[in-house]
Specification:
The chain has 204 residues and is α+β, with helices and mostly antiparallel strands. It contains 5 helices and 9 strands, in the order βαββααββββββαα.
Amino acid sequence: MSSTAYARAPAAGPDSPAPALQAAEAQMGVVTEAGAVRFERRLKGPLARVWSHLTQSDLRAKWLAAGTMEPFVGGAVALTFENDTLGDPPVPATGPYACHGGTQPLAGRVTAWEPERRLGFTFGLDKEGRPASEVLIELTPDGDQVRMVLTHRRLADRAAMLSVSGGWHAHLHLLSEVLEGTPRSPFWTVLDPLAKAYDARLPG
């Protein structure tokens, strides 16, 4: 399958989200093959600081999830998503996101560990206990910024594609804010319109 960019966000209107969210929507992910989506971002450096926000539990918790990553290929990954801590309002009590409240553990294995260059890990387990999908994050210095390419592969179906597309997009939006030192947007307020945008654009 040739690369397919998710379409750009709709033009601004009376019901459009805040300007920061409009900017985030303009960076839609790219479907690179069946079951794979890629994101590219320019983040505030230096490179060592971006790497630490990927690999150190306390820093990663500010935008994604706390938890351990053993620093070698084959090492254990044990992430703990505390989604109620990702801004105010917390996880909605009703609706499609209610099941994401509380503590959500995710296990995996490190598949790539090249400090300040490449980080890869399997992302959860399927019903047979096998790795469900895989994430690869590649970093390249770009002046005072860092170019990040994040690819999530081996996604089983459209539902999985939608889940990780909106989820990664919203989490990377928070990462950018954390690195910039700007106030962090409420995660669920960011995620909802993004999830709807991906749903409208993903074939099938």
